[in-house]
């Protein structure tokens, strides 16, 4: 009778250990996913902040103010793990600036947006 009770106790103990191992694996996956989402959110927030500043400069100076836009962005932000690129183009009536924001260690594009500015001055 004593052997069957100890065997049953050991079986129950093994099941409990397996249950906790499975639960801890699920919790680890949840925490890792939460960390990834937090990093993506941080990257998106930085991207929108930089794009907003680039857009303000672009609307103020236009395509001819590329150096001013570059100077403003480089002096305003010091985030070594992020980078950006600006591409300018124009047609008869509009100037365009495409802003791309990258997470440098993975070289992945976080955000891209094209801004449009009318060439004619409005009085």
The oligomeric state is single chain
Mean model confidence by pLDDT: 87
How can the largest sheet be summarized? 3 strands, antiparallel
Percent strand equals: 15-25%
Structural class: alpha+beta
The string of secondary-structure elements, in order, is HHEEE
Instruction: List unreliable stretches of 5+ residues.
Output: none
Number of helices: 2
Distance between the termini: 99 Å
Number of strands: 3
Computed over alpha carbons, the radius of gyration is 27 Å
| Number of self-contained structural domains | 1
> How are the strands of the biggest sheet laid out side by side?
1-2-3
How helix-rich are the residues, as a percent range? 55-70%
Outline, from the CA principal axes? rod-shaped
Report what the structure shows.
With about 120 residues, the chain is α+β, with helices and mostly antiparallel strands. It has one domain (about 1-120). The protein has helices at about 1-60, 65-75, and strands spanning about 80-90, 95-105, 110-120. A three-stranded antiparallel β-sheet has the order 1-2-3, covered by helices on one side. A hairpin with a 4-residue loop joins strand 2 (about 95-105) and strand 3 (about 110-120). The protein is rod-shaped, with a radius of gyration of 27 Å.
